[in-house]
UniProtKB/TrEMBL annotation:
<feature type="transmembrane region" description="Helical">
    <location>
        <begin position="53"/>
        <end position="73"/>
    </location>
</feature>
<feature type="domain" description="Major facilitator superfamily (MFS) profile">
    <location>
        <begin position="5"/>
        <end position="448"/>
    </location>
</feature>
<feature type="transmembrane region" description="Helical">
    <location>
        <begin position="298"/>
        <end position="320"/>
    </location>
</feature>
<feature type="transmembrane region" description="Helical">
    <location>
        <begin position="424"/>
        <end position="444"/>
    </location>
</feature>
<dbReference type="InterPro" id="IPR045263">
    <property type="entry name" value="GLUT"/>
</dbReference>
<keyword id="KW-0472">Membrane</keyword>
<dbReference type="Pfam" id="PF00083">
    <property type="entry name" value="Sugar_tr"/>
</dbReference>
<feature type="transmembrane region" description="Helical">
    <location>
        <begin position="176"/>
        <end position="197"/>
    </location>
</feature>
<dbReference type="InterPro" id="IPR003663">
    <property type="entry name" value="Sugar/inositol_transpt"/>
</dbReference>
<dbReference type="InterPro" id="IPR036259">
    <property type="entry name" value="MFS_trans_sf"/>
</dbReference>
<dbReference type="GO" id="GO:0070837">
    <property type="term" value="P:dehydroascorbic acid transport"/>
</dbReference>
<feature type="transmembrane region" description="Helical">
    <location>
        <begin position="355"/>
        <end position="373"/>
    </location>
</feature>
<feature type="transmembrane region" description="Helical">
    <location>
        <begin position="394"/>
        <end position="418"/>
    </location>
</feature>
<comment type="similarity">
    <text>Belongs to the major facilitator superfamily. Sugar transporter (TC 2.A.1.1) family.</text>
</comment>
<feature type="transmembrane region" description="Helical">
    <location>
        <begin position="262"/>
        <end position="286"/>
    </location>
</feature>
<dbReference type="GO" id="GO:0046323">
    <property type="term" value="P:D-glucose import"/>
</dbReference>
<dbReference type="InterPro" id="IPR005829">
    <property type="entry name" value="Sugar_transporter_CS"/>
</dbReference>
Length: 468
């Protein structure tokens, strides 16, 4: 089971974290490439406004690709299987790497844009299908810890990208095409590793009606003596579905039986993206400078933020099946509310005392730790747990579309929010964190050690009334 998580993670959420991270290091080198290419092609200098537009397209088209990937990921998981969809997804990653790698020698920034779009599609599919696979192969007493594998590999991708992007490695001017095309290596790794592991047993029995293959897969994952309990659980769910086919995303919006599950997924997914984590990274460089850290050393300090996320993802993975989902996610949002308050005050009085920037630095790391301990890791886990087999792929498509749409919206609006409110932008995020914590406290039951059918029964009363 542990090795299966590693095999799906290296080409799944790792790719998302890695490709979000590596685009920051070569910013100036890509600007230079755009200027030189434009001058060579059109015999005139590139207008600064056009340069800004081109760079914005290169940076933001990744999220547009992610949205497209999220919208097709669920369908791929149904048609090709969870394992088949992940394997096919690597072909997209390799093609994207080739396009980004040859953009510089061919003098074509259009290939760079196309490559970023394709690697965005790859990330969108991976974020949809990987947690789907892990959630379906995990036994209920380990489901939380295994589902945290998605978050661990995502944060590991961010940290790896930050390290590889250092100027001593591939962050130098001569190597940026290699940096952007290096995402082919996780893709090749998954193509080698994943075929050794079985398809999702739930998919084999419930979707494909292949009981023999399901039993064989369960024996691989749980051993010859311990697979019967999992087999019985899957058979109960199969019987309850009574031959129901996988559903389309729009069907979930009209089904009263999943109303509050869908509302929960929408709220927690938007809450994760709008929690202020992007604002933290935006302000990090400014705060590090105020604390007296030289510009040359800031990339190394920034590694600490990536290390924080990795540490909390691992910690959350160890705690989630003991403490429970509700406690961790509510606690995470409440702690983020506290650190948002501290940051608002410390940024307001940043110039007043020499020790205040260090309070801001501590608050930044504490905010990231709080995010990773709750919202950062548990959101995907909840999406897997709140739906039964026929609705789960469609739920991931909806969650993915909302996540990428929110990511894109925050990217577009955030500069204006910061410009208008400055440090008081954290008051907006403070309010959002409080509201999401309150919603989870009032609506979402604890899902620890419960089967998918048990969780569905918990929501049945809320969906159809207390007397249902």
């Amino acid at each position: 089971l542990f090795l299966a998580v590693c095999a799906v993670g290296i080409g799944g959420t790792f790719q998302y974290g890695y490709n979000v991270s590596i685009i920051n290091a070569p910013t100036q080198h890509i600007h230079k490439f755009l200027n030189e290419t434009w001058t060579s092609r059109y015999r005139k200098d590139l207008n600064p406004d056009v340069l800004t537009l081109l760079w914005s397209i290169i940076a933001s088209i990744f999220s547009l690709g992610g949205l497209c990937g999220a919208l097709v990921g669920g369908s791929m998981a149904i048609r090709l299987g969870r394992k088949g969809a992940l394997l096919m997804n690597n072909v997209i990653a390799i093609l994207a790497s080739i396009l980004m790698g040859i953009s510089f020698p061919t003098g074509s920034f259009e290939l760079l844009i196309a490559g970023r779009f394709l690697i965005g599609i790859n990330a969108g599919i991976g974020l949809c299908v990987q947690p789907l696979y892990i959630g379906e192969v995990a036994p209920k007493h380990l489901r939380g810890a295994m589902a945290m594998g998605s978050s661990i590999f995502l944060t590991g991708g961010i940290l790896t990208g930050q390290i590889i992007g250092l100027r001593e490695l591939l962050g130098g001017e001569a190597y940026w095409p290699l940096l952007l095309s290096s995402s082919c290596f996780p893709a090749f790794a998954q193509l080698v590793l994943l075929p050794w592991f079985p398809e999702s047993p739930r998919y084999l029995l419930i979707d494909r009606r292949d009981e023999l293959s399901c039993a064989r897969a369960l024996k691989r994952f749980h051993g010859s003596s311990g697979y019967h309990r999992e087999m019985e659980d899957i058979q109960r769910e199969c019987f309850a579905l009574d031959g129901e086919k996988p559903r389309k995303p729009w069907q979930l919006f009209t089904d009263r039986g999943v109303r509050w599950q869908l509302v929960t997924v929408i709220v927690v997914t938007m809450g994760q993206q709008l929690s202020g984590i992007n604002a933290i990274y935006f302000y990090a460089t400014y705060i590090f400078k105020q604390a007296g850290i030289s510009a040359a050393k800031i990339p190394y300090v920034t590694l600490g933020t990536g290390g924080c996320e990795c540490l909390t993802a691992l910690t959350c993975g160890l705690l989630i099946d003991y403490v429970g989902r509700r406690c961790l996610v509510i606690g995470g949002y409440l702690l983020m509310t506290l650190w948002s308050t501290v940051l608002t005050f410390s940024l307001t009085y940043q110039e007043l005392y020499p020790w205040v920037p260090y309070v801001s630095m501590a608050a930044i790391f504490a905010f990231i730790l709080s995010f990773g301990l709750g919202p950062g890791g548990i959101t995907n886990t909840l999406t897997a747990e709140l739906f039964i087999q026929s609705s789960r792929p469609a739920a991931y498509m909806i969650a993915g579309a909302i996540s990428w749409g929110s990511f894109f919206t925050v990217g577009m609006l955030f500069p204006f929010i910061v410009t208008g409110l400055r440090q008081y932008c954290f008051l907006v995020f403070l309010l959002e964190c409080l509201l999401v914590a309150a919603f989870i406290f009032l609506v979402v039951p604890e899902t620890k050690n419960k089967s998918f059918l048990d969780i569905q029964k918990e929501f049945h009363k809320r969906n159809f009334g207390r007397n249902a």
